[in-house]
Amino acid sequence: MAVATKRKPRTKTDQGPPPEAEVSAEKMLEFYRSMLLIRRFEEKAGQMYGMGLIGGFCHLYIGEEAVVTGAMAAIEPGDTIVTAYRDHGHMLSTGMDPKGVMAELTGRRTGYSKGKGGSMHMFSRERNFFGGHGIVGAQVPIGTGIAFAHRYRDNGRVSLTFLGDGAMNQGQVYESLNMAALWKLPVVYIIENNRYGMGTSVSRSSASPNLFGRGAPFGIPGYQLDGMNVLAVMAAVEDAVEHARSGKGPFILEMLTYRYRGHSMSDPAKYRSKDEVSRMRQEHDPIDQLRKRIIDGNVADEARLKTIDNEVKAVITEAADFAQQSPEPDPAELWTEIYGEVGEARV
Amino acid sequence: MPALSPTMTEGKLAKWHKKVGDAVKAGDILAEIETDKATMEFEAVDEGALAEILVPEGTEHVAVNAPIARIAGDGESASPKPAPQAKAPAAPPSAPTVPAAPAIQHEAAPPPPVVAVAQETEWTGPSTTMTVREALRDAMAEEMRRDPDVFLMGEEVAEYQGAYKVSQGLLEEFGERRVIDTPISEHGFTGLGIGAAMAGLRPIVEFMTWNFAMQAMDQIINSAAKTRYMSGGQMHCPIVFRGPNGAAARVAAQHSQEYASWYAHVPGLKVIAPFTAADHKGLLKSAIRDPSPVIFLENELVYGQAFPVPAEGDWLVPIGRARIARPGEHVTITAYSQMVHVALNAAASLEAEGISAEVIDLRTIRPLDVDTIIASVEKTNRFVSVEEGWPFAGIGSELMATVMERAFDFLDAPPVRVSSKDVPMPYAANLERLTLPQAEDVVAAVKSVMYR
Predict the structure, then answer these.
(1) How distant is the Cα of A337 from the closest Cα of chain B, in angstroms?
(2) I need a labelling partner for B378 at 20 to 30 A (CA). Which of A140, A198, B131, B267 fits?
(3) In what order do the strands lie in the sheet with B270-272?
(4) Where a domain ends, among B106, B136, B156?
(5) Are residues B286 and B157 located together in one domain of the fold?
């Protein structure tokens, strides 16, 4: 059984990923539960999409759960998160209520954006979750600006800015890296490299597949790591966050991960083989890997995990019911929240 | 006096670096010239000796092209002429003047025009005269003193003191934490400002000109304008985007574009385009305090114009309210930004012909003060819209539709739009003038709705 220890702080940040985090039994079970919650939530969302209960675009995070789960374990209260449109997992990881997230997917008034945002546009002030952005790469300068605000206020917080491998070919990403390095902003860029930007593989879209290395010309350190191993992710994000919080500026982490489902719901899946997908599922699944370590390391027994499975299932069922039973937005909601009122409370 | 910028008509001879009798080589710094944008060193292009200084240092309002000194070449007398300086400009043709004449022929510039404006009706206190440039600077400085979350960022806003000198002195007062020079990365720093606003700060983002903001269009519209709505009110984006808009002078197609209708199309944005210094100051202060993203369109040609501005108190002009710039009876003319000047000139010449035109300075494009426009049209029964932008789907189109919807029965003639011609801005001086709305175009439009 793993024991919680305080790792020795490393003096250099450019020597590759640190050894994986050593965490308590409770923490391991918490990871298991968190990743399973995302998996089951996304499976349910896919099912409800098929039933016509969810519309539009719906990007599922299945296969990538370890990235956000490990990252959230590495930050402190007050640190902020922003991501693109594959965002359900991030919301659940920050502690946002699955009922409110699912109700937003079904376009109901009880959703986080009152039914006006949908899958790609959800936010939570309370959980410091800044969205939910639908344009590839647009969240990167925004996350950099949130880091700017942290530094302006000297509040000791760090901005975690998630982006995909596809976003790494957007110009505004490099404008952001330049300013973040120039002004030593407390931001950690986490590249969720799931190998495909929509249907185009990294090797077919990127002249240099070394994505984390693209910070080097700006003097931004970074490295690549196994994004399917939640403990490796946690250790690396702790490392990067410490770097950013201490005033040394931005850091880039490239998480090698994999998306089992299509880019969105209507994906012809012609760009990769079924074998590739099933091999990743069988050999690298982040939840199976952790489950095996829990059982093999006698952290908990099958019965305990079964209990967690059932608890998660109940949460998802409750969220799905809530999302279907909640009423649609009041038609009057169409005209609200376009402009603010002068003198309104600041957020 | 050399022309050192596209819009310069005059300058101040701040300092001479050479004195009479000094040898001058090409490349030597002769003098420091202060323009409305910057203080620049001016180099000699000819060799010889400085024979005569025609304009002493400290002289202000020296017209572009006025000779400021005479350099004697080989074989010429370098000694100063004894002639009195009263009739200075005619330098001997054999002696090259400093500098070589620039291509643009400006008329001798008068001192900054003081344009009489109708003050905000509620203002009865004392006024002071200041330029639009100073009014903008004062608005930012006052709001930055008032609110520690307000900061200014943009290209050349800090050490350079603003590409158009608008942020002069702000770095000195507020320091580099709050007055921030950005790299030339419009897309990136616009998004960065939006992120900072979402996190609770109140950024002022200066675009060197609005032409460059097209690089950042996605962030302005998709991120700034829509965030409040699509977050169900949870996320706010209190940010001001400001800078010069529209044509300056002779900068051609890619640098001469008027963006009011582009941004006014977008729910979630407020769009302001003032004319007077008082309105620039009062509306910019209101914009900085506004919790929504605001597009603040200025005009380079107006920066140097001086107007009366309230001299005390916290001068705020409400967003969304038009101003009757000139009351009249026979026809309603709407305009905004620099075009108010054009409309007022047209109204003055129409008056000589017995036509009393009411000129409405829209000031805010979105939300539009429809009531003021309709009340005027109901009185005059005739309507002409003036804008610097293109006609197709322009502000005039929107105004026309609004007048048709709201005051159709009051109209005695079909309304007419005056706008820029439907072409990219040409460079040649005559073509540029043909492209932009002129007072005579407005006069012709008014006569057509008057059937005269």
Answers:
(1) 5
(2) B267
(3) B179-181, B150-154, B202-206, B240-244, B294-298, B270-272, B364-366
(4) B106
(5) yes
